## 1
Amino acid sequence: MVTEQKSTWPSIGPFYEEGAEGFRTEEMILNLGPQHPSTHGVLRLVLKLEGETVVQCTPVLGYLHRGIEKILENRPYMGGIRYMDNADYLSPMLNETAFVGAVEQLMGLEPPRRAQYIRLITNEMQRIASHLVGIGTYGLDLGAVTPILWCFRDREGILSLFEALGGSRFNVNYMRIGGVLHDFPPGWLRRLEQWLDQFEHHSLPELDGLLTGNEIFEGRTQGVGYIDPQQAIAYGLTGPCLRASGVSFDLRVDRPYGAYREIKVNPQVRQEGDAFARYRVRFQEMGESVRLIREALDKLPGGPISARVPVALRPPRGETYFAVESSKGELGIYLISDGSEYPYRAKIRGPSFVNLSILPELLRGHKISDVIAILGSIDIVLGEVDR
Amino acid sequence: MTLFTQIWNWLIDINGDGHGALQFIITFVFSFGFVMTSAAVLVYLERKIMGFMQDRYGPLHNGPWGLYQIFLDPIKLLLKEDVSASVTDNVVFHMAPMVFFAPVIASFVILPFSPYLTTSALETGIIYYVALSSLDVIGVIMAGWGSNNKYALIGGLRSAAQMISYELPLVLSLVGVVMLTSALSPACQGAHPNLAKCSIGSISLSDITVQQMHPWWLWFVLIQPLGLLLYYTCGLAETNRTPFDLPEAESELVAGYLTEYSGMRWALFFLGEYGNMVIVSSVATALFLGGWSGPGADLGFWTSHIGTLPGEIVFNIFATAWFIIKMYGLLSVFIWVRATLPRLRADQLMRFAWLVLIPLTLANILILGVVLLAIPGITLKLVVAGIINWIMLAGYIAFLGRVTGVSPVGRLPKRAQARLRVPEPIKALAPVER
Amino acid sequence: MDIVRRPLRSGAVATTSAAKNAQYRDLVRALQPIEDIVGHPVPRILMGGGVVGMEIEREHLVAVCRFLRDELNFDLLSCISGVDMITHLEVVYHPRSLSRNWIVQIKTKLPLDNPEVDSVVGIWAAANWLERETYDLFGIRFVGHPDLRRILLDDDFVGHPLLKSFRPTPLTWKDKATTQADPVAAVSGEAQRGIERHVPKHLGQGTLERLHPGTPTFGHAHQDALEDDMPAEEPEQGSQ
């Protein structure tokens, strides 16, 4: 009983190909499997190799697909905020900001100014935390075992601040529609400033000295994984990957939301477009975030931290698209409300998902050893890719 | 002679030159025990030192400062189940760890811990050491082949290529030291050196160590610092340490030759690697850092103050202590480098060996030879050679970035390029799910 | 030209000002030629966040998108979403113009019996995976897509989950293992669950391998193709 099933795989090509003289040439298929120390999550890459060169790459996704969009249709708006934490699990605050921002834009609701500043501060802290993980794991992929531990040590400062603020280190569930959950506890701002001081004057220069001028690190990342700006835009890249190719597009600058309308952001742009440029953009963005947090702390207004919004919120019928500048790129929420307590459709535009689509194009022609360097430089989070 | 005198002579003074069976026994036991425990201690030290560099404690709980880890790690490895997958070549697979480990043990014999704790019979110290380190390559290839795993085979071959490539500059960087011993030997000194009788220098480690003690601080590192750095770099590559640890990297795609080994077999490879590190550091200490010389290691001082036998004992203790301190200093640099640097890519690694290290070592030999021949007077020779070498060292460090920095972007091989097709858009697709 | 301003909740600060309306007036005016492409007036609605929305029939979608990209420089495709409106399906596109900082929303309605629309992969390369995802979750077919297959779910998943009519289906039993000839294709799906099968290895090693539920088989369990060469030695486990 032979079931004739058409292969749904793309034409990777026949496994054996007859050469002109009639002998077989074998191309090797290498499976960078879902469990691998360097794939930043459960990502599977099927590489077709000719010798040491990658001829074709097929990413296989979906190992972390949890159906978050479907879940969001079955939870009230406030109950759904916490599911956004699971998308990009390295930047939950930014995800939550996107979701509540979408609901507020749908309702035409503007949160109080203090809430917007608090959102900016936590968002920028979260951006620093996410970039620390990205840079640390990138160093680890390339063999530098020390930067990751220093990055995580600095991340501990941020996470314990989040714990004091919202009760949880990682997925805080802190944003609410109309504002934020808690105000700063006493002493929090002073702790934040202490942490900022030691981060900016001690940790960042340490990390810089260890990675940036290192000839081996530069040798493995410079000239590797070049993305043309036109190609980047065509593939929908956003965030540090796009800014490293010379395109200055930052949603905080071009489409400001919240307190970014009052605090100006300098987008960090580089022209080289290779993996080293992406690393430098993330590094410089961390410094920029520190500056933004300091400015927001100076200008922090008083007032309420949340608008009064019913728990069983029923936004008016309508649809909206709202995007924030997440640590990985443009995190967009396309929200449709039918007037009931549950969203009708909540589509999450994950930046890592779109950024990853350039990988097959990018890996063509590179050697195996560069695969890890390129994949790490795009800095994906599988939670956002698969949702 | 009475039986007692004969036994006494055999023990103490078999040849009439002060060396006896007792010395051999003590040296053997000490050497073997020291290097083996050094490997275990080194594992602990690595975890501890790397931990402190990474802003964390290393092992902390087992014993004071986690010192019991030194015993517990080997015990754990001994107790592991002996897993051997169905392998192609049983003999090769099982022999590989031993073939890898045996040259390491055999290299102990050349180490001059102190004038008493050394086997001076081995006059061919350097050649012997280099030959044995070349045997390690066989062990690696055997490991890759016997693993029945094409990725392990590729990894083994790549590791073997790396080790072979770095053998050459390793040997060449030691030639400078040999030339210095030649210049320092008595027949070559003076205003009119007797070139017919001028010995060609010594390749015995103990002799080279002794040559560095006129005065006790004139170590060869002052005259040949570039030699030490190059030798050390090649030692890093020989022992598969970062930044040359591509064969053992867990985040690289191709599995290394160690994939199929577990338990005590893996422990043998592991001990072999750490033993190799100890040997490399010891050889560097003996050749460049003056071996057992140091303040306090003065035979005349101790014999005149305490007496002949206690004086010798105390002198040897000091000498051994200095040797061990210097050796562990170099080992700590191994660990420091591992904590700091990322990994070189395979092609960068090979390019570095062949296009940078070999020309540099050859240039080192050439320039040193010219200086030693052209300049009269031993002091002036050494000073000029030292100055030139320090300048070369500074240039090497300054320009290293230029050499390793550029990485070529990959290009598709022509065959693949011809076959590469952009998939055509299909007008209408048949339904794919039932 | 219609600009509909959404009524704001009382007490909220107005975010749409006259200056912003002027900015979007340019965009709305620039979108005028779409009416020529489509052939009839197209209402352009200013929505929250400065997004101008339009609804285009699926026949004119590619032409409109090409106009947007080539003439108006909408070069970055942000998002493609599918929506299940129970009576019909919708595909919503959100392209951006980086140089002029515009964003539009294009909505296409699709009937339920024939949910097909032309693929915009030729216009924006980002649409490749976004359309695959929409197909995966909604069943909307994109004609002209070079590689339309599931991306987030298993290759042999039955159903399209984000449809409102999707209910968790009971596990389906298939008679044979659903591996393909591709040696790296892993077995997933329900047929492997709950049954243990003995499969001889065909690499010349001669060891029987017991398949536990969920084991990827990498081509070993491909009974269909190998039945011609070697009879299958597996005992039938009643997996029908």
## 2
Amino acid sequence: MQTKRVIIGDREVKIPVLGIFPMIAIGLVLWLLTGTYIVGPDEVGVVQTFGKHSRISQSGLNYHLPYPIETVQTPKVTEVKRVEIGFRTTGKNQFRTIEKESLMLTGDENIVDAELIVQYKIKDPVAYTFNFVKPEQTVREAAEATLRTIIGRHKIDEALTAGKFMIQEESKFLLQSILDKYETGIFVVAVQLQDVSPPKQVIAAFKDVASAKEDKNRMINQAEGYRNNVIPKARGEAQAMIREAEGFRVARIARAEGDVAKFNAMLVEYKKGKEVTRKRMYLETMEEILPNIEKYIVPDGDGSNLLNLLNLNAQGGVK
Amino acid sequence: MKKPLLVIIVLGLIVFFTTVFTVDERQQVVILQFGDPVRIITEPGLHFKLPVPFQNIVSFDDRLLEYDVAPEEVLSKDKKSLIVDNYVRWKITDPLVFLKTVQAIPTAITRMDDIIYSELRRELGTHNMTEIITEAREEIMEKVTRNSDEATDQYGIKVVDVRIKRVDLPKENEQSIYARMEAERNRQANKFRSEGDEEAQKIRASTEKDKTIILAVAYKEAEEIRGEGEARALEIYAKAYNKDVDFYEFLRTLETYKKVIDDKTTLVLPADSKLFKMLYE
């Protein structure tokens, strides 16, 4: 090997000098080595030979012929990317609404505030790499157009309530078909309709409808409650009336039977000596009633002195 | 001995590198011979041409390109003003024509914008606002895309998609929509409340009705039962008392005395009455 003498200060150093061909050889080796590259586990390698797409390489250590013969690009094919329409996430659990994007007309010419999240990933890395420009903007614009188209097909009440799922599915389908038309190689993983709400200018009126609905239910429930209170009471009252009547019937009959039994028993005895019994009973009754009352006995029997008697009694009262 | 060889190699390399060129997947190329286009290459890969002073290359993007149109105010058929925001996806399909007519992308966009704007205006002008918002939107976009595409053929451009991103109302009209929405909701709220009132009253009224019926039916039944009792009692009494009407009358009279005559009664008795007839004898 050739050497060259170099004087540094007062010392003499020998430096080996390579000839032109070994230098070219080393350069060539280094150049060839620049073709090694790593494809991450979430990526694939899209290799171009003289600008033309030639092959796809999988994860791990790979080799392509060095630039400018071959080049490689490694799009992340498993990563799910996300685009937000109508709002932006500004931090953890912090969002900013973008009214310009989120306010849109419904099919019945109302305005709703709708927010959408699109999740997408690369299904065809070759198409994704070569066919179009600005992937994120493309998805965003297509998604925005899609959401408005679909919301425009629905009435406001559908958009706010039951139609949400349908809107989501239709949006996903339409968005995918647009992206396919552009040959983007993008797969729409999910389209999630976030909050769909009335614009804030009129939200109070919408809330009032909800509370009116509740008012309606409340009024009905109260009336039902009233019914549930009144009807059983009335039924109870009715039963009470009937039971009382039934009691009355039994009692009335029993009493009649009792009275009759007494009468029959007395009748048997009476028949044994009619006149005597009659007199005795009469006198007994008189004994019973007369002691407690005021009585006047008028001797002449026709009661004509009654007035005098009353007068006398009155004067006596005065004295 | 070595020097001429080196010169030849260097010269050879220079010639080689101006002769050989690659066309990327994302490109298409026009070869100019002294400024005059002679060949179009759309196939990516390694290609050859004459060295530099003789032939040059101009490359164009072969991808789907975008351009976003600024929102414009457009009138619908029913003379309603709408703010339309759309975007365009397009492609250079004939680089030669493109090069001859518009040369570069910014010029192309200006030309395209003129065409698309007028197409959009014309098309939207044939539809009512409601149609534009709802079912006709896609049809309009397709038609505008098709017409614009035909019109841009002269520039070597293919308009792949003209898509309406937004159709909004001007701010003033928005207010009237909000007012209408509010009125509509108020109407609904009132409807719900009146319905509630109606339903509740129905329930209450039917409750009162049912209550009245229940009580009346019970009254009827109770009176029937009472009547039955009374009738049975009368029958029993009649049967027994008929055995001796005279004795019954006597007994009942005595009973009645006991009840009628109490301590407030003043009784005037003639001395010759049945009770006292022995008093003066």
